[in-house]
Write a structure and sequence with these properties.
Largest sheet: 3 strands, antiparallel
Radius of gyration: 19 Å
Order of helices and strands: EEHHEEEHEEHEH
Number of helices: 5
Structural class: alpha+beta
Oligomer: single chain
């Protein structure tokens, strides 16, 4: 982790482990987290539409895997990395982080491929058997997954 204020590295002023831990604690549990995602999306869309030249964080700018520091304007999203971090290295870091979240890869056509471990857990715990899905399949797969969750909640929460 690197903390920059007005382009100056101030990371040494912070306990970065504590900052990360405290940040995660701020996330609302369950479905309430969707409000955080929605708010961030609205902020980013506003910056693009109203040409704000906003420096912020954005998931998947220009189709890249993971999240990046960006500048958002009417021209789109410009990835703005610290000078010591190449785009290739940032992509590698995000791909490794994706694997920790259960994503083996996202193909050029948008197909999401889960890790074997993730597939095993989803199949064993939820009865959801899905190694990969395309963007066109995402709604059907989401509905299938919701149905699997409903079976579990009906079994254990009633």
């Amino acid at each position: 982790m690197k903390i920059l204020i007005d382009g100056q590295d101030v990371t040494s002023r912070f306990d970065t482990d504590k900052v990360m831990y405290d940040a995660v604690k701020l996330y609302p549990p369950g479905i309430d987290f969707t409000t955080v995602s929605a708010s961030s999306t609205i902020k980013n869309m506003y910056a693009l539409v109203f040409d704000q030249n906003l420096r912020t964080h954005s998931p998947g700018p220009n189709g890249l895997p993971g999240g990046y520091p960006v500048r958002l304007s009417a021209k789109g999203a410009e990835v703005v990395l610290p000078p010591e971090l190449s785009l290739e290295e940032a992509i590698r870091i995000n791909e490794e982080a994706g694997a920790l979240d259960g994503i083996q890869e996202i193909r050029d056509d948008g197909t999401v491929v889960f890790t074997d471990y993730t597939c095993e857990i989803m199949k064993e715990m939820l009865g959801f058997d899905c190694k990969s899905f395309t963007p066109d399949e995402s709604e059907a797969r989401a509905r299938e997954l919701m149905a699997c969750y409903k079976v579990i909640t009906d079994k254990y929460l009633r």
